[in-house]
């Protein structure tokens, strides 16, 4: 089958699945993006289709996660947390539907600006690729220290780098003795599902369960849905004012260049800058929401595309988390040596198949969220439990780990999930730090212990 048709089919698949998943609030991005992207890669999808699937999935999920953020005041995922204050302000003013429209329009504009910016900037940085590849071990180690220092756990994250690298090297050696090959997918999946897995462990602990108990069930008040346009696909530039569109475009362009920074940090920073340039509660909140949702899309897309196109090794928070299978999914993709989309696609193909994914996501998730936000939210809240979603992804992770190394892979994934998840939840050692330590563990142990 022609690669273009296959790419369209996978983009449709990614857009539909993640449009629905985005309605479930509080879902961890790494935990749901990694297993499904790995599954697509290991099923043998061509590189073009993998990129289209990922781009469609990212944009679809981010667009529909705006629904619980705007209508119920609960963040769709971690990237939506900085938007909560402005969304709550508009809910108190009785216009949550306006907040939702501004966020959706800003998201589509931000994504369309980020892709060409990321491709051009990635091409420019590509001239330094040989240096980055030859010094990857040292770069991973230094990046682990830098990310750890700016993470939630800060100093404890820095202190845990060497012990965690020793732990990874130890179980890698043990599993190598059993299956006679170095495992990678099982490590990835364990780190990815760690936060969800640790929540299950805490719920099973007689001493720790108290932290999860609640006196009563949470109550949410869903705002009414008001349609203020004709037709099925409202023009994003008509939803925003000219000034809001320009500010969103500028914020998205700038944040696309800062591919090594935290997406949450850039979203907060750009929101503050745009908000400070608008007077009045309504204008400030609507302008900030449009720009901030545009930035969530632009940082996500740029942080995946730029290191992939320029170096082929994961050097950004998104590349170390949700986009990590695009860099390393043995035996199909590897980052050491570099054999992934970096070698397989030209810059023109990065743009073409990335745009294909974004366009299909915009045609599905954007009008769906604009027209059926309230009805879809009611259905999800009544009939789909978050526990079912968690169980589904942990089951999928175990299936992929078994594919890589049988029972040894499943045991390794569960071990990594338990240790990494508790480090994340209890000490604040983020998944990004853990992924970076995983990449740099071989270099660290060889330099420190000669192993």
Amino- and carboxy-terminal Cα gap: 47 Å
Q: Provide the succession of SSEs.
A: HHHHHHHHHHHHHHHHHEEHHHH
Rg, nearest Å: 21 Å
Helix content: over 70%
Quickly count the helices. 21
Basic shape: globular
Total beta strands: 2
Record keyword descriptors for this entry.
451 residues; mainly alpha; two-stranded antiparallel ribbon; globular
Describe the structure.
The protein has 21 helices and two strands. The protein is mostly helical and 451 residues long. A two-stranded antiparallel sheet has the order 1-2. Strand 1 (334-335) and strand 2 form a beta hairpin. The model has no long low-confidence stretch (mean pLDDT 83).
Summarize the structure.
The model has no long low-confidence stretch (mean pLDDT 83). The protein is 74% helix and 1% strand.
Element layout with pairings:
Layout (H helix, E strand, L loop, with lengths): L2 H19 L7 H14 L4 H18 L1 H7 L11 H9 L3 H30 L3 H6 L1 H14 L5 H5 L1 H19 L5 H20 L31 H4 L2 H16 L5 H14 L4 H30 L6 H4 L3 H4 L6 E2 L2 E2 L1 H4 L2 H37 L2 H42 L3 H19 L2
Helix pairs in contact: 1-3, 1-19, 2-3, 2-11, 2-20, 3-6, 3-15, 3-19, 4-6, 4-19, 5-6, 5-15, 6-13, 6-15, 6-19, 8-21, 10-20, 10-21, 11-20, 11-21, 13-14, 13-15, 14-15
């Amino acid at each position: 089958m022609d690669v273009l048709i296959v790419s369209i089919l996978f983009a449709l698949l990614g857009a539909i699945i993640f449009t629905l998943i985005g309605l479930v609030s509080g879902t961890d991005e790494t935990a749901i993006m990694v297993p499904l992207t790995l599954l697509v890669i290991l099923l043998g999808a061509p590189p073009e289709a993998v990129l289209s699937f990922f781009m469609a999935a990212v944009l679809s999920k981010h667009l529909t996660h705006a629904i619980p953020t705007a209508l119920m005041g609960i963040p769709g995922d971690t990237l939506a947390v900085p938007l909560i204050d402005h969304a709550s302000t508009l809910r108190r003013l009785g216009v949550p539907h306006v907040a939702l429209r501004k966020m959706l329009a800003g998201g589509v504009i931000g994504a369309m600006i980020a892709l060409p910016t990321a491709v051009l900037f990635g091409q420019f940085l590509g001239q330094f690729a040989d240096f980055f590849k030859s010094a990857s071990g040292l770069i991973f180690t230094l990046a682990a220290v830098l990310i750890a220092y700016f993470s939630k756990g800060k100093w404890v994250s820095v202190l845990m780098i060497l012990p965690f690298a020793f732990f990874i090297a130890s179980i890698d050696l043990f599993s190598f003795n059993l299956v006679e090959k170095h495992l990678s997918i099982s490590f990835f999946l364990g780190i990815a599902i760690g936060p969800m897995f640790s929540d299950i462990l805490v719920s099973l602990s007689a001493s720790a369960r108290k932290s999860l108990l609640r006196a009563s069930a949470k109550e949410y008040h869903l705002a009414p849905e008001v349609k203020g346009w004709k037709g099925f696909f409202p023009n994003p530039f008509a939803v925003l004012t000219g000034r809001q569109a320009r500010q969103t475009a500028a914020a998205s362009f700038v944040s696309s260049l800062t591919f090594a920074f935290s997406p949450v940090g850039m979203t907060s920073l750009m929101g503050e800058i745009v908000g400070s340039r608008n007077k009045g509660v309504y204008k400030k909140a609507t302008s900030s929401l449009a720009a901030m949702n545009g930035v969530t899309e632009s940082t996500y897309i740029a942080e995946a595309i730029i290191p992939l196109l320029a170096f082929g090794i994961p050097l950004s928070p998104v590349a170390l988390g949700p986009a990590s299978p695009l860099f390393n999914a043995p035996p199909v993709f590897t980052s050491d040596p570099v054999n992934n989309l970096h070698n397989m696609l030209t810059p023109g193909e990065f743009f073409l198949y990335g745009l294909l994914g974004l366009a299909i996501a915009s045609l599905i998730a954007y009008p769906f969220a604009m027209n059926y936000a309230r009805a879809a939210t009611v259905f999800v809240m009544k009939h789909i439990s978050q526990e079912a979603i968690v169980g589904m992804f942990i089951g999928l992770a175990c299936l992929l780990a078994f594919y890589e190394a049988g029972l040894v892979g499943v045991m390794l994934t569960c071990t990594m999930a338990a240790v990494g998840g508790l480090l994340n939840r209890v000490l604040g050692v983020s998944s990004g730090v853990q992924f970076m330590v995983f990449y740099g563990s071989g270099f660290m142990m060889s330099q420190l212990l000669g192993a």
